[in-house]
Amino acid sequence: MIFTTAQWKELADGKFFIGAAPIGPTELGHNDRYVFALPARYNYAYPEGYQKVEKILENHPLEAIEVK
């Protein structure tokens, strides 16, 4: 998911919601303009390979570059 920083703040402030999950998306990384996030239930059904995804995410693999 990609949000502007203003949208991310509004989401955090409860001004709108994404989906029916009781928690919001998880930030993967950000730059001055955008926040990159995973949906709250991206692995809800425990699809094949989800453990590999979890291991990759533990190392914070996303590095958002600054937009000029």
How would you describe the overall organization of this protein?
This protein is an alpha+beta fold and 68 residues long. It has one domain. It is 25% helix and 19% strand. The protein has 2 helices and 3 strands; from the N terminus they run βαββα. A 3-stranded antiparallel beta sheet has the order 1-3-2. A hairpin with a 3-residue loop joins β2 and β3. The protein is flat. The mean pLDDT is 92.
**Largest β sheet strand count, sense and barrel closure:** 3 strands, antiparallel
Continuous helix count: 2
Q: H/E order of the elements? A: EHEEH
- Quaternary organisation of the protein chains: single chain
Helix content: 25-40%
Q: Over all CA atoms, what is the radius of gyration?
A: 13 Å
Task: Record the strand order, biggest sheet.
Answer: 1-3-2
Mean pLDDT: 92
Cα end-to-end separation: 21 Å
Flag low-confidence runs: none
Structural class: alpha+beta
- The shape, in one word, is flat
What percentage of the residues does DSSP assign to strands (E)? 15-25%
**Number of separate strands:** 3
Number of domains: 1
